[in-house]
Amino acid sequence: MRHALALGVFIVSAGVLSAQPAAAFSLSFDWGNIPKCTTGRPGRVPNPVFKLGKVPKGTATIRFDLKDLQVPRYPHGGGKVAYTGKSTIAPGAFKYNSPCPPGGRHTYEWTAVAQDKAGKVLATAKAKRKYP
After folding, report:
1. Which end of the chain is more exposed for a tag (fewer CB within 10 A), N or C?
2. How far apart are CA 29 and CA 128, in angstroms?
């Protein structure tokens, strides 16, 4: 009986271990050399350097969107880039409205959405940073 119970626990444990999800799609960024702006009137600037991790297999494009978490309705925009298999998206792939909080620091969040050739969403990743 003990052996059967131990075997059952082992089988269940092995099944749980093999069912663990793969590592998630990840995103990080650095503001880079964008002009400092604290007037509340952002300018159009090149995207920051993005670092990608665990991009899903089958990704054809990645869509980026910036949100000011203190003023989420402001349309900072973003862009869409063809995914070439590289883990870095260099500045200049697209332009967007820069962070430019009036009177203090705000937290900004980039969202990256990996899509296949048909436009199906494969995964989403987010990264936050304060500015300035």
Report:
1. N
2. 8
Residue 35 pairs with which residues in a beta bridge?
none
pLDDT tens per residue, range 7-50 = 444 444 444 444 445 679 999 999 999 999 999 999 999 999 99
Of 79, 103, 102, the residue nearest 91 (C-alpha): 79
Rounded CA gap, 2 and 56, in Å? 43
* CATH code of the domain occupying 23-131: 3.90.280.10
Distance (Å, whole) CA 29 – CA 52: 9
The whole-number pLDDT of residue 105 equals 96
Structure tokens of 110? Answer: 């980039």
Whole-number pLDDT of residue 47: 98
Cβ burial of 108 (10 Å; 0-12, 13-18, 19+) is buried
Q: CB-based burial of residue 16 (10 Å sphere; 0-12 exposed, 13-18 middle, 19+ buried)?
A: exposed
Residue whose C-alpha is closest to residue 81's, from 120, 127, 112: 112
